[in-house]
Design a protein that fits this description.
Blueprint lengths: L9 H5 L19 H13 L16 H8 L7 E5 L37 H6 L2 H10 L8 H11 L3 E6 L5 H5 L6 E3 L2 E8 L7 E3 H9 L13 E5 L8 H10 L5 E5 L21 E5 L8 H6 L14 E5 L2 H12 L2 H18 L34 H7 L1
Parallel strand pairs: 1-2, 1-7, 2-3, 7-8, 8-9
Antiparallel strand pairs: 4-5, 4-6
């Protein structure tokens, strides 16, 4: 959640290329100094020089236009960026919604400020509030949402390059995405480590779950130091895989789908500017986020632009993430398939846990009450692998 390294600029990301087998001669007039070339490019963009017109890939700035592009054959590498908003329909609160967000309901923990519950310095001195909260939000008590399964459908259709998630609830894994499909930018409950840098003993999800639900403060069995889930607190560095994958994924992105995030935490929020300038970007969220501000404009970087006369690639769906995914799936002709997947997977989770919940239980995520009906979210424990993966193992 901190910014340990200055994120690469949009100009640098756009210019990334595959390594060449043979060393080529520098172009005439080149300084052979990447920093100087970057500064020259940045200055040119600030002055409106040398950027030229950008190809508009979408035939229409709408959900329909996005759907046609996705089916055109030119859209082969989709990256999803997701935040807490994709899991609210599962019963997990987001962080910043007034009144209902996590930060609005932490008074009982007597914190110096709401964010302190995720600050590494405060955690080392006062771990009790975090582990009390962890019991309420612990992975395995919730089922994936329509949005999670929509990303699985993108994978099944060979379109998903990667999902970059801010979430620590592991619901992407529960839905069926595998480790290679995911960049868990803010870490995960999936593993835990001893905080003693001379020890660093690793512990799995079952061990940590037992400690948390027995109301014990998890201590290392080797050195008795504090053990913390591998989620990224304020004051900690992001996983190394975040930076390495970003460099290879974003220059190849054909479509960026952003869902359920306020785009207010860096460096995650800066990822929207790492795709090529012509790459379409779709935001599915309850409110607009990531829009260009005066500072971004001055620095020559591109935030989201939905409404200006210069808008050429950004589309927004305002509403819940489930509704947005169902609406897009309908435009793609995938809606029935998506609803069937959600119904099947939720029934498998219930059966695996002995819940026996009826697959006919439905919510009205699509608003039509019929084809869009998807299984109601119930706070029943869920396996940490998708039902399809369980079937393969059996």
């Amino acid at each position: 959640m901190s910014d340990p390294e200055a994120p690469i600029s949009g100009a640098e990301a756009d210019s990334l290329q595959e390594p060449q087998e043979e060393e080529s001669s520098p172009a005439e007039g080149s300084t052979e100094d990447p920093e100087m070339d970057f500064l020259r490019s940045l200055f040119a963009r600030m002055q409106g020089l040398g950027s030229g017109p950008v190809e508009q890939v979408l035939d229409e700035l709408s959900l329909e236009g996005m759907a046609r592009y996705m089916q055109s054959g030119d859209c082969k590498n989709i990256i999803c960026m997701v935040g807490a908003g994709i899991a609210t329909s599962a019963g997990i609160p987001d962080f910043r919604s007034p009144g209902t967000g996590l930060y609005s309901n932490l008074q009982k923990y007597d914190l110096p400020c709401p964010e302190a519950i995720f600050e590494i310095g405060y955690f080392k001195q006062h771990p009790e509030p975090f582990f009390t909260l962890a019991r309420e939000l612990y992975p395995g008590q919730f089922k994936p949402t329509v949005c999670h399964y929509f990303m699985c459908m993108l994978k099944e259709k060979g379109l998903l390059r990667r999902c970059y998630t801010q979430n620590i609830d592991t619901l992407e894994r529960v839905a069926g995405l595998q480790e290679e499909d995911l960049i868990e930018a803010h870490g995960t409950f999936h593993t835990s480590h001893c905080l003693n840098f001379l020890c660093r003993e690793e512990y799995g999800l079952p061990w940590m779950k037992e400690k948390i639900f027995s109301e014990e403060i998890p201590k290392c069995e080797k050195c008795n130091s504090l053990v913390k889930p591998d989620i990224v607190f304020f004051g900690e560095t992001l996983p190394s895989r975040f930076s390495s994958s970003m460099l290879s994924d974003f220059p190849r992105c054909d479509l960026l789908i952003i869902m359920g995030t306020s785009l207010s935490v860096q460096p995650f929020a800066s990822l929207i500017r790492k795709v090529p300038r012509k790459t379409p970007r779709l935001l599915i969220n309850r409110e607009k986020s990531g829009e260009t501000d005066s500072q971004m404009s001055f620095m020559g970087t591109e935030g989201m632009d939905f409404d200006s006369e210069k808008a050429y690639r950004d589309v927004v769906f305002l509403g819940s993430c489930d509704d947005g995914c169902l609406a897009l799936a309908e435009k793609l002709g995938w809606k029935d398939e998506l609803v069937a997947m959600v119904t099947r997977e939720h029934a498998a989770i219930d059966a695996a846990e002995g819940g026996g919940a009826s697959a006919s239980a439905a919510n009205q995520s699509s608003g039509d009450g019929e084809k869009g009906a998807v299984p109601e979210q119930k706070d029943k424990p869920a396996e940490q692998t998708g039902a399809r993966e369980r079937e393969k193992e059996e």
